[in-house]
Records
---
Amino acid sequence: MGAWGFVGLAYGIVWGIILLYLISLKRRYNSAQAELDVLSSVEATDRDVKK
Amino acid sequence: MKKGAQPIKKRRGILGALALIAIAVGLYRGLAIAPPDAYQGQVQRIMYLHLPSILTAYLSYFLVFIGSGMYLWKREKRDDILAHSAAELGVLFTALTIIEGSIWGRPTWGVWWTWDARLTLTAILLLIYIGYLMLRSLIEDENRAASAAAVLGIIGFLDIPLIHMSVYWWRTLHQPPSILQPNKAPWENVHPSMLIALTISFVGFLLLYFYLLSLRYRFGEMRCEIKARRLARGG
């Protein structure tokens, strides 16, 4: 492999891993957000029932 | 949605956009404008990733150290969330540093890996914080897990001065600092164009880091909120 091959490999792997981490973090974030929204709506229903 | 969440989301978006711009400019300067190294040639361009990655990892472990210390002192959940978030990102950036170093080492040293003092201590740093993350998932009691992890987070940070000094204390294959030398200004050691590329790349990494940290921290907050609200509902 030539010098540019090593440079390309390093840049490709690094930005690839960062992108994968970002995607996984966004997924976890969105699923937590969705869970909070569900909890909020359930709590609101409970409050309405109590009234 | 939490009060004040929208402005924070907007600020996070701006931070992400700025990170993207700085990274793009850093890539352009590092790959197209900066000259190749006189001895190593084109392969030295890995430096524009390698140095910002490890400095970002050090910053992250410093935040773990601060967050852990504050948690042990004040027992506030937000400090623990900060330490946990920073540890996860520290592991990411340390792993990246080791991968980049390995790819850089192959054409310059002739090996992908060697048990050099700096490399070994960096691998130990990575293992300590992987242990930190595992510890958190292994102990069921959340407060106990946070306390044990905080102690490990503080102890693990002590490895960083060792990593920094390793190139002075032991005969290592890894070079000593070539930019930040005690008796010379950085611009006296490297070509100004290289220094500009490195600085922009580092700024890009920092902005990206704070963007990821903000996202990871909010995720940690939401998880705590979910647990607390479930508990309040009796589930």
---
Amino acid sequence: MRKMSRSLKGPPGVDARLLIKDAAKLLPDPARRAFLRGGASLGALALLAGCDIIDGPSAERALMQVSYFNDRVQAWLFRPGKLAPTYSDADVTRPFPFNAYYPEEDAPEVDGEDYKLLVGGLVENKKSWTLDELYALPQETQITRHVCVEGWSAIGKWTGTPLREFLRRIGADGRAKYVWFRCAEGYSTSIDMATALHPQTQMTFRFEGQILPRKYGFPMKVRIPTKLGFKNPKHVMELAVTNKYLGGYWEDQGYNWFSGN
Amino acid sequence: MSIDATHDRTVLPAAPTRELIHPLWVRITHWINVLAMTVMIGSGWEIYNASPLFPFVFPEAITLGGWLAGALLWHFAAMWVLAVNGFFYLALGIASGRFQRKLVPIRAAEVLSDAGKAITGKLSHADLSVYNAVQRLLYLGVILAGIVIVLSGISIWKPVQLQELTAIFGGYDAARYVHFLAMAAIVGFLVLHVVMTLLVPSSLRAMIIGR
């Protein structure tokens, strides 16, 4: 099965994301430009009347404007109390697929002993949290469907603390627009506050009852059954509550930001 | 005055024009649909390639978007054109009585008889304003496939918020197959539709100028 995009793996020890960011400053990014190959064809005529259809960047801008409009439509469709369907133990997909923009052996190795979840932004208490402190929080288990932007889906069993319970404990400003996550490998994503406060949005510490294995995001992932898989960050090192739009790893490359299910 | 009168006479049509076959709203929605469908199918094939349901992928040369993110941007932009245009087409088709007048009834015996005539080249296309039984079946069928592809697409897009709709299609994974099969039905129709247009070019003229 083809991976989500071209391999973005950098040399060992080099942060692939920063490498790409740097490259993007210097060169037109082939991955970002590639989707405009069909841009001067029939499709462009349909959608971009009034635009210079040969001009790639203007086609890209027009498509991104529609994507921002789709963010608003999805936020409007989102109902805070609507729960994702839940399944039984027997429905869990085994083995649960590993998926990332790097191969499994390159998944970051986070030392649980030294781990501290950094907390920032519009919160009352910015104290960072050790794993023991996080494990002591009340926990729930959910068996829900993970839907990948590629189209496939898989059912998993995740255990952890509702994010809204954690946000309450750190005195987060619930009127802020976003919660942003930074991950060990340089990945990042951000979600709307309504989704952050959804009852099934979870800081996940266990998969199928076992301490979250490295391939599924040790020591902590954020499980969001109301969003596509790439909006479910693994190896989360830092969380911030903010009014500033910070996008994310895939979102910055053209994937729809809201990406709600 | 007399010059004007003479001038008026000279621009009068020499003979009555042919009867209007396709009103303007049919032609406009038809050609908008051609563009929207082209974008939806081309980008849909690229999206399919990211996680194929069957042991084949579509050649990159006939897909739209370049990579998954680009294809998704096209797909979720053209969906608005397809859905809004399709809504107006259905509303006007029902309200004007055109669907009731031209697409029904569909009787199995007539379909078989007309299909036999079509294959042996004996089916007349002289009167484009009346659809034969095969046309009625295919035109109604592709309208239904269009409705199914939109609803199954929404099911795949929003399997949590609109989970009741997704459940009608048998869940998320099943809805993907329904969406694909509806595409296959539409593409199959398109192949036949374009071949018939080439065989009966006056039907293309009718869809452009209405007569």
